[in-house]
Amino acid sequence: MNTVSLVDVSTYLPRNRVPADYYAHFAGTDDLRENLMFRAPEYRHHAAPDQTNTDMVARACAGLVSRHGSDVLADVDILLTHSQLPDLPIMGAGGEIAHRLGMNPEWIIDVHNGGCASFVLMLKLARQMLAAGAGRTALIAVSQTCAGKVFDQTEVRTKAQSSVPGDGAAVGLLEVSDRSPILDVECRYYGEHAGDMTLAADPPRQWWQAGTGQGYVSFTEAKITQVLARGNRLVPEVASAVCDRIGVKSRDLDLLVTNQPNRVFLRNWNEALEVPRERHRDTFHQCGNLFGVGIPVNFEAAINDGQVTAGDTVMMAGFAHAGDFAGAAAVRWGGRP
């Protein structure tokens, strides 16, 4: 089997930077206002109402083109995409992204599951395909536009949940080489929790039905307690499984990057894995909960300021939705060109 490397990541955050005071101005009488799950970050970025997943992924690719040349996308054999909020409910953005970027890959796959850990899931899929001979290069793309579209609706932005999400996009470039090898990946599915992530509207309706009420995520105190317990357990479990297989103690990891639902999870994860706080990189107070974009955004932030250098072992880990999926991947970072 071929060795596969994650050779680069590139990210994009929308220009509209929204402070915490924006939501404080609209705050209503939500019973969950004081819940630890919804403590607001100082800032987050909002996609414009007319900004699509394809728009944002194209912007995220700019860094790859500048570093690897204008032909880097033309040579991609596999394109995997994940959109937290698809622009159309019946299809993903893969085909449009390929067209916009001038790509002609043999494989285009929209990966709808994976949620906040979708970057890890797509790492595994792309690695498996490239290792088996499906091509020489792959691009994985993840985008999130819920904050500026769903959570900024006039009725929804009064809810506690709306002050936490942020928007952004990220891409990862993989190739068959040993330059920056993906050491191991662990993905686990918990189908018994898949139905626990639900949407609601007032008055109640199905998401596809016409109606006057604006849709939002259905949270209760009991559901939040369950999600907190699952997330606290699942992320350390998958990260520890990868550590065991690559022969590295979690406390010796050079860098840990995770999704970032809130400060509670971030603190609990670095404590459970015994990773010093300074080696668990996050951008929560600058970007909020980026869903699936969080892992690559945090990784690129560490690359850009020199926190991670060539030869370092990087662990990426996260869980999705209400706990139906968790994944972790270890990379021996080879440095940028």
TrEMBL record:
Gene Ontology terms for molecular function: 3-oxoacyl-[acyl-carrier-protein] synthase activity; beta-ketoacyl-acyl-carrier-protein synthase III activity
Domain Beta-ketoacyl-[acyl-carrier-protein] synthase III N-terminal: 113-189
EC number: 2.3.1.180, 2.3.1.41
InterPro entries registered for this protein in UniProt: ACP_syn_III_C, ACP_syn_III_N, Thiolase-like
Enzyme class: transferase
Keywords, comma-separated and alphabetical: Acyltransferase, Transferase
One Gene Ontology biological process: secondary metabolite biosynthetic process
Domain Beta-ketoacyl-[acyl-carrier-protein] synthase III C-terminal stretches: 243-333
Protein name per Swiss-Prot or TrEMBL: 3-oxoacyl-ACP synthase
Protein species of origin: Mycolicibacterium tokaiense
Taxonomic lineage of the native organism: Bacteria, Bacillati, Actinomycetota, Actinomycetes, Mycobacteriales
